[in-house]
Amino acid sequence: MPTTGSERRRTALVTGASYGIGAATAIGLAEDGFDVAVTDLDTAALADTVAAIEAKGARAAAVALDLRVQGSVEAGFAAAAEALGGIDALVNNAGIPMTRAATEITRTEWDTSLTVNLAGTFFMCQQLGRHLIAAGRPGAIVSVASTHGLVGFPNTIAYGVAKAGIAHMTRILAIEWAPHAIRVNAIAPGTTETETRAPSLAVPERRALMLNRIPLRRFGDAAEMAAAVRYLLGPQASYITGQVLALDGGLTAY
Ligand SMILES: NC(=O)c1ccc[n+]([C@@H]2O[C@H](COP(=O)([O-])OP(=O)(O)OC[C@H]3O[C@@H](n4cnc5c(N)ncnc54)[C@H](O)[C@@H]3O)[C@@H](O)[C@H]2O)c1
């Protein structure tokens, strides 16, 4: 459990916290007693999340952080740590979908997906790892991967490879940072009905086709994903590290 003493509240940083899984997780962590730094491309879109965190009686800090730009990753992490007096837990939630046939995807599209989804996630982990190891404090990371990184789906080459990279990165960092009491885990959501996904899931034939592949015959929601992140960051998960937990209604059980 990331804590340094009774006088200091636990702190977390959540990327991409304006909507969907990131917002639900940030607000849930406030309920669990964390003060929360929320980051996204701009701070205006974070206003609702900040208000919801503060309504739970926790402190919130909104920080602009663009995962494509290393200077922004470093400055954003430093600003969050400064605002909350250190960071104990990191949720790498921000990510971008990319649906392209393998014959069509361009080098630029590939680079964008790998830069945001994989490199951005890793360099955020690096920031927290350096921060905690220098301070001699324990901590925890949960990254949001995807079922697309566990099994192959057509037309998801760059997204799927990036998410598979997050799963493997999770195992490597868990081992490398175990001596520092930093736990590193990931969740792999299946299709989750968030604001950004809702329009594409509204097409009836597509919806029926997708639901037919899920044993529980429904999509997940942001609160279900947030619940797993909260568990993995919390005291009940103190012996769990290096794991990727699929939250997919049974999709990958086939
Ligand atoms: N919704 C799903 O069906 C689903 C399924 C599996 C995995 N996921 C993953 O869950 C995570 C959240 O998904 P969601 O549906 O809630 O997404 P979302 O699109 O609602 O949120 C993603 C956030 O990431 C931010 N972001 C995008 N580019 C960024 C950049 N360069 N730097 C910093 N932030 C950036 C966006 O502004 C947005 O707030 C993503 O990593 C996604 O890949 C989602």
Task: Describe this protein's structure.
The protein is an alpha/beta fold and 254 residues long. The chain has one domain (11-247): NAD(P)-binding Rossmann-like Domain (Rossmann fold, 3-Layer(aba) Sandwich). 44% of the residues lie in helices and 15% in strands. The protein has eight helices and seven strands. Strands 3-2-1-4-5-6-7 form a seven-stranded parallel β-sheet, with helices on both faces. Helix 1 packs parallel to helix 2. 46% of the residues are buried. The protein binds nicotinamide-adenine-dinucleotide (NAD). Nicotinamide-adenine-dinucleotide is lined by residues 15-16, 18-22, 40-41, 65-68, 93-96, 116, 144, 146, 189, 191-192, 194-197.
The 3D shape can be described as globular
How many helices? The count is 8
Which ligands are bound? nicotinamide-adenine-dinucleotide
What is the percent of helical residues? Answer: 40-55%
**Number of distinct beta strands:** 7
In the CATH hierarchy, the architecture is 3-Layer(aba) Sandwich
Distance between the termini: 34 Å
| Main sheet attributes: strand count, strand direction, barrel closure | 7 strands, parallel
Q: Approximately how much beta-strand content do the residues carry?
A: 5-15%
The topology string of helices and strands comes to: EHEHEHEHEHEHHHE
- Name of the level-1 CATH class: Alpha Beta
Can you tell me the CATH superfamily?
NAD(P)-binding Rossmann-like Domain
Q: Order of strands across the widest beta sheet? A: 3-2-1-4-5-6-7
The whole-number mean of residue pLDDT values reads: 96
Poorly predicted tracts of residues? 1-5
Query: What class would the helix/strand composition place it in?
Result: alpha/beta
* Count of domain modules: 1
The third-level CATH topology is Rossmann fold
Radius of gyration: 17 Å
